[in-house]
């Protein structure tokens, strides 16, 4: 997906929120914002939005001198999600259609996206989770998704955010674990999950987890490690979680299923649905 | 009031909305947006937000080749407001406190601000007007306002937007008309009222109306005509309507009363009140 003009005010809002989270120094907030304005003024709009996100967050980390500004928040959301895990795992087991329930919960977890909304309290998260189990859900591609899982031999599950990966675990546990490799980011960017989060929430104990070698808030193959690129090439099915992975891989011809909640009007329009929709959508294969 | 970082995403949102309203050419939308990004990257943040607004809208008009892109919308809101005029004038006459009711309606009319919200339908406007008559209203400075009106010999009423000026008329008609001069903008900018609007809604028939010679969406004295600057200097009371006039005159030591509805978090914070508050507030005199 390319960058739309409407992404620009949002880049700026995210920049300011993230700068404030990263340092208390108002002069640094201002220089970060001015740098991002210069960057966006000259940007190539044919890139995907996370390509700019990657540059913006590099800038913020470098100008504020903080390698992982979202570390504390990532821990907070990991712990919050883990506290809900057993109860939700029970709900999934007892459900009429466990896979669909697990997908719904994985999508609900996608609300923990600090690029979209910096503050989010526990009751908001619980409320969204409760609603996700009965909210309308476009399951047009559900049967094909299940069929492709059965056929595949090598599945990559591209994770999105810390905290959210606990909800992904509910789904991953229902999949044939021997075929699954979970992919996290190579370096911190916003609250995207890294290996540290995968270990913390126990994902590494149940399945293979690798990192993609990149600090983009999505999957921009050319900025990923050679090793990950080869691994992506070799996989015969990709499950891509969240907006960032949709924005960066929506034009790919790989066999991809996207699982996300639409949280911005541009992405909702690109997917021809309303904001707030729970989406399981096959890619262009 | 200076520019805050939080104004920047809003400048960009306004730019894009306004560019789309002004021309259908998407390449022009993009070049306008890039120019505004360059402009804001290097701007002096000690200016008031309308100083940037002025530059942005000059840029939009010039790059899109349209001198008055909001002309049709201004006419629409003038007509919509005039349709409500008689009924509202009756409400004011029959009210226990006509001046307060007229101020409330003048504030309600301040919702017709296309810099803040591009589309606004008639039922929204009517709803806001109805609510304004009983909604909480900080009238701390009300008695002083009435006292200063009595004492003053030369009052400038700085108008804000087209459509809105019909609601201002309800208040102006209750003031000593021989002391009042209404001030409109010298050139089109967003949907700010110009002489054309003042004539259209009949304001020129009941009181003196002058223009300030400027195309800023507020009152930036140094960009106004010499004649208006002298007139401002000479006046002994100023009634300043709307956010733009507050942003540009809040630091003035002139005897000013601001009448507005807070429509953005930055201004609400500057005024120590919530968004959506109806405000009659004395200046720094």
How many distinct domains of chain A? 2
Tell me the fraction of residues in β-strands of chain A, as a range.
5-15%
Question: What is the correct CATH architecture of the largest domain in chain A?
Answer: 3-Layer(aba) Sandwich
Shape of chain A from CA axes? globular
Identify the CATH class of the largest domain in chain A. Alpha Beta
Strand order of the largest sheet of chain A: 1-7-6-5-2-3-4
- Name the pair of protein chains with the most residues at their interface, and give those residue counts: A-B, 18 and 18 residues
First-to-last CA distance of chain A: 16 Å
Oligomer: homodimer
Tally the helices of chain A: what do you get?
A: 13
Features:
Rossmann fold, homodimer, alpha/beta, 285 residues, 11% strand, seven-stranded mixed sheet, Helicase, Ruva Protein, domain 3
Description:
- With 285 residues, the first copy, chain A, is of the alpha/beta class.
- Chain A folds into two domains: 7-64, Helicase, Ruva Protein, domain 3; 71-282, Rossmann fold (3-Layer(aba) Sandwich).
- The first copy, chain A, contains 13 helices and seven strands.
- In chain A, strands 1-7-6-5-2-3-4 form a seven-stranded mixed beta sheet, sandwiched between helices.
- In chain A, helix 5 packs antiparallel against helix 6 and helix 5 (98-109) packs antiparallel against helix 8 (164-172).
- Chain A is globular and about 55 Å long.
- In chain A, 47% of the residues are buried.
- The interface between A and B is medium-sized, with 18 and 18 residues.
